Amino acid sequence: MFSMKNLLVILSLALCLLADIEYEDSEAGNLKRINDFRREFAKKHNIANMHELALDRNLRQTAMWIDIQHDTWKDEAGKT
To answer: How far does the signal peptide extend, from start to end residue (predicted)?
Structure first.
């Protein structure tokens, strides 16, 4: 059988896992963390109109394409 110490360890681990479910390790989870921080910051400092951030996958793809083009240009410029 489990001792009281083992049960406490198992219960503690289960509570830690349940507490972290709200923030999964993904883009959506990271964005939720940022928005929660911004919300608390806005409340604490009385900042109005601090709107929630949203993930725009098309904008991210465009930024990645620009970064790739910049790296390509930088590599070609370094060859001369």
So the answer is: 1-19
Helix count and strand count (H, E) for the chain: 3, 0
For the chain, percent helix, then strand, then coil, each to nearest 5? 70, 0, 30
- What phi and psi values does residue 49 have, to the nearest 5 degrees? 60, 30
Residue-wise pLDDT tens digits, 18-68: 555 555 567 788 888 889 999 999 999 898 888 998 888 888 888 888 888
18-34 residues labelled b (16+ CB within 10 A) or e (exposed): eeeeeeeeeeeeeebee
pTM above 0.85, yes or no: no
